[in-house]
Amino acid sequence: AEEEELKHEIVSSPSDKVYSFLGSSPDGLDQNEITKRLEIYGLNEITQVSKIPIYQKFLSQFTHFFAILLWIAAILSLIAKMPELAWAILAVIIINGIFSFWQEYKAEKATEALRKLLPYKVKVIRNRELVEVDARYIVPGDVVLLSEGDRIPADIRLTESFELQVDNSVLTGESRPIRKTSSAYSKVNANWIDMPNICFAGTNVVSGNGRGVVFATGMRTEFGKIAHLTQVITAELSPLQKEMIFVTRVVAVIAISMGILFYLLGTFLAGLSQLQGFIFAIGIIVANIPEGLLPTVTLSLAMAVQRMARKNSLVKKLSSVETLGSCTVICTDKTGTLTQNEMTVKKIWAFDELEVTGVGYCPEGKFLKGSRNLSDEELKKSYFWLLLTSGICNNSKIVYEKDNNRWRIIGDPTEGSLLVMSMKSKFINEEIKKWKRVRELPFDSRRKRMTVISQKGDDIIAFVKGAADEIIERCSSYFKDGEILPMTGKIKSAIKQVNEEYARDAYRVLALAYRPFSNDVNLFMLEVDEVENDMIFLGLAAMIDPPRPEVEEAIKKCSTAGIKIIMITGDHGLTAEAIAKKVGMIKGKAKIVTGSELDGMDDSVLNNILKEKNVLFARIAPEHKLRIVSNLKEMGEIVAVTGDGVNDAPALKKSDIGVAMGIAGTDVAKEAADMVLLDDNFATIVNAIEDGRAVFDNIRRFVGYIFTSNIPEIVPYLAFVLSGGAIPLPMTVLQILAVDLGTDLVPALALGAEMPEKGVMEKPPRPREERLLNASLLIRAYGFLGIIEAAACMSGYFFAFWQTGWRPGLKLIGSGPVYEKARTMCLAGVVTTQIGNGYAWRSHKESIFRKGFFTNRFYLFGILSELVIISIFVYTPFFKGLFGHRPLEFKDWAFLFAWSPVILLADEIRKFIARRRKSHEGG
Ligand code: ATP
Predict the structure, then answer these.
(1) Mean pLDDT across the stretch 511-538?
(2) Mutate to test the pocket of ligand 1, among 340, 394, 445, 474 (most ligand atoms within 8 A of CB)
(3) CB count, 10 Å around CB of 13?
(4) Whole-angstrom Cα distance, residue 240 to residue 300?
(5) Residue nearest (by alpha carbon) to ligand 1 atom 3
(6) Which of 342, 417, 443 for mutating ligand 1's site (highest number of atoms within 8 Å of CB)?
(7) Which residue has the higher pLDDT, 50 or 44?
(8) Other C-beta atoms within 10 Å of 195: how many?
(9) Quick check: CB of 415 below 6 Å from ligand 1?
(10) What is the pLDDT of residues 479-507, one digit of tens each?
(11) Whose C-alpha lies nearest to ligand 1, atom 6?
(12) Do residues 85 and 279 touch, judged by C-beta distance below 8 A?
């Protein structure tokens, strides 16, 4: 009942009463009050509930496919009366389970931490000032400003609304935009969500803007109340992870069939006993199953995601990392991504050009005609309405930051620059304050215009700004030096010509216009097209937006990496072309396709254009962007596309990698995207692609590394069975496990952290269908490096016998100290060759001598770890006894270490030949 009363009060009171009811005012809360309320109501957060409990995750490590296989092996060993082996396998299950759990836990924590990095700022009025705060610090009573694309941070009663429409689909599932108004309603609807003057946390502003006061935050919002129902987040596996699962299963099946086959061969052909045959089968199976591979892949993706976040690209799903690596086309905006989005109006034109001086957003500067400073009188006569329109048709604000001693804008930089420009004429400031806003027709990227209708006494005027071509067509007269004259074709083409000249010089140009209304019209009944019509043209404002310095280099990288870049912008074609040339995206003449040309274009024509070089799309609306992305995808491209507005969301979703702007982007775009650029910078996308490619390479590195050591684990068994037992088993199952779950672990992880190889951006994108485990990787691991490793281990094994006088032809004794030492040599041989092998896998083509032996510190640590572990296994009494090892002497180690450079140099020769062949092909 109390809640109903509260609802009633909030809905039915007029604005001023709502404020006082919530202990607030249109000026916002002060700091003391905010601190107090934060203490009472807590942070504005949805607390996570009902996730899969941690113990369940832990247990699942012991019940998956491999674990079950190992359980079976353990039980079979018990049945076969080999309790030591059963215990050992049990130990493997446990070690493996704990390690995998730890890796997955770490990966999850890493991705969770990223979510916190996602910027989520809200514009609020506090203590009379407009400030941006983190959404978590919003409290009841806060006065929040809403604009297009904002995610609504809390439950809000509106006190002002300009064409505000919201998308309530998170609450209702219904995505049709709903109009919201600020007037009071006498009655609370049966359906609270439908109340027209309430906006709810978690929903989005589709268009328009508004203002309101917060009455519920965090878990007390409607969204918070239903949140626990929807929070079972199902972690989707990435294609790579799925592939890994598939690969490991295939390997397991092969291993099991091999085990069975060799068991039969051994017992029937080689005359092994049942027991020997059985040990043998288990050995083969355990040797081949890559136990720890999947969690290592997951962790290495997660580490990549963290690394990328440090470089300003926030990847929201692990799977995007690999998609990035195979990206073939980037469709990019211009403003803010290729350019700095720091606009400064340099020139204004009202049938005469003025130069505007000053730096950045500081509202100090002069208006020069030639080199002469224009007086206020002259300025008022010819430019008064232009300056006034710039200041009034504007939602931005400039603020002075004392700490940094600089001026900053809140809002859209295009508008910010116009506001700064108008404020450079001091008299306009006073004038702006006299006008009261009646209605706003918000900017949208289809119309490319924005209008504010304001009133001063009896004067009612619509102030309009927008893309010049759009404005000119809607003007029936023009203002020149204090006079209003009828528009003619000649004047129009004169204006267009100036517009194009500016555009060609890379200026972004906006046109300004106004239209007076008599005060008997009902302004609220007028449609947008009726308002923005029959206007008086005022002039043009040309602003510069310098390219980002890093972009040129990034574009060069894309060209060597075989990635195509297509600019898709809302701006004028000539401005777009000028910027594209400045950053090196287009060489020679550009093919400019405009949105209206696209409308009448067949898909087949469009697709042919998309295949061309030097194409750019200008004056584009968001649905065009969606069409371009869809067509590129149909053509088999892997497309990354950038976006920032609400209307970009469909294209972001449609693309393979949707990239949202972290600074200029709306919350809606950030939600729809797969990746968020914290610095809005094009170069960051290219860095992310480079990282994506590197991750794929790295996963191949450690998979190759791990697979290589399978061969020296299998060969001893082959030797044993094919010799019919004449060569006593050179490596036991326990020893194999010592490699797979001991010495190999840290070096494999280290290979996953390898820096991108030189040249990752010098080859074409990886084809979508290319598998992680392709033939060349398997041949290199199994057929080449693995064979050398096996040779090393077997030679070490025989070396131990040789030293005691054994010669070929004599019988090998399969027990006693010599045999034990020979087995120790075999295991130590895997470790010493894996050192060289790891270096070999650190690059696929590049020579390690160029890459450097000490450039991956983590790998050095990996080597240290394997040496420490093998020493523990060989020399400490417990493990010595467990494995049946014998201490090795200096000359034994010398013999085994001699193999490390052998394997590395052999691979160096292979790389050399591969490089030669490549350069022949290339040349
Ligand atoms: P990009 O797509 O490269 O970011 P853009 O910022 O020019 O380019 P839009 O934001 O869709 O793309 O703007 C399209 C056009 O609309 C601009 O070129 C400009 O002429 C006009 N415009 C932009 N912002 C405003 C605004 N706040 N008010 C009025 N017109 C605007």
Answers:
(1) 89
(2) 445
(3) 17
(4) 12
(5) 334
(6) 443
(7) 44
(8) 19
(9) yes
(10) 999 999 999 999 999 999 999 999 999 99
(11) 335
(12) yes
Q: Which atom of ligand 1 is nearest to the CA of 448?
A: 16
What's the one-letter identity of residue 615?
V
Cα(570) to centroid(ligand 1), Å: 6
Selected residue with higher pLDDT from 311 and 104:
311
**pLDDT above 60 for 234:** no
| DSSP 8-class letter at 740 | I
Residue 231 has pLDDT above 50, yes or no: no
| Residue scoring higher pLDDT (307 or 109) | 307
Task: Check: CB of residue 510 under 8 Å from CB of residue 467.
Answer: yes
pLDDT of res. 767: 81
The separation between the first and the last C-alpha atoms of the chain, rounded to the nearest angstrom, is 82
Angle between helices 376-392 and 413-423 in degrees, nearest 10: 150
Q: What is the Cα–Cα distance from 615 to 573, expressed in whole angstroms?
A: 11
- Give the C-alpha separation, 578 to 482, whole Å: 34
Strands 508-517 and 535-544: antiparallel
State how beta strands 204-216 and 155-167 pair: antiparallel
Q: Is 218 within 8 Å of 38 (Cβ atoms)?
A: no
What atom in ligand 1 is closest to the CA of residue 567? 3
SS3 120: coil
C-alpha 253: how far from chain center: 36
Residue 467 near ligand 1, beta carbon < 6 Å: yes
Whether residue 844 contacts residue 918, with contact meaning beta carbons closer than 8 Å, is answered with no
State if residue 335 touches ligand 1 by the CB under 6 angstroms criterion: yes
In sequence order, which residues have a C-beta less than 8 Å from that of residue 44 and are 6 or more positions away? Answer: 135, 136, 137, 138, 139, 153, 154, 217, 218
Q: How far apart are CA 766 and CA 328, in angstroms?
A: 9
Residue whose C-alpha is closest to residue 829's, from 742, 910, 731, 737: 731
Beta bridge partners of 547: 339
How remote is the CA of residue 469 from the centroid of ligand 1, in Å? 12
Selection from 246, 239, 203 nearest residue 317 by Cα: 239
Residues 883 and 736 sit within 8 Å (Cβ to Cβ):
no
Residue 333 annotated to the active site: yes
Give CA separation, 508 vs 337, 339, 378, 500, 540, in Å: 15, 11, 26, 10, 10
> Counting atoms of ligand 1 from 1, which one is nearest the CA of 338?
3
Among residues 142, 150, 155, 333, the one annotated as catalytic is: 333
Is the Cα dihedral 134, 135, 138, 143 positive or negative?
positive
**CA 852 to ligand 1 centroid distance, Å:** 49
pLDDT digits (tens, 9 = 90+) for 393-406: 999 989 888 888 88
333 lines ligand 1 (CB under 6 A): yes
DSSP secondary structure of 838-858 = HHHHT-SSS-HHHH-TTS-HH
Residue-wise pLDDT for 438-461, tens only, equals 888 988 888 899 999 999 998 999
Q: pLDDT exceeding 70 applies to what percent of the chain?
A: 95
| Cα separation, 596 vs 573, whole angstroms | 12
Distance CA 681, CA 339 (A): 8
Are β-strands 675-677 and 329-332 bridged in parallel, bridged antiparallel, or unpaired?
A: unpaired
CA distance 761 to 560: 6
Asked if residues 359 and 342 have their Cβ atoms less than 8 Å apart, the reply is: no
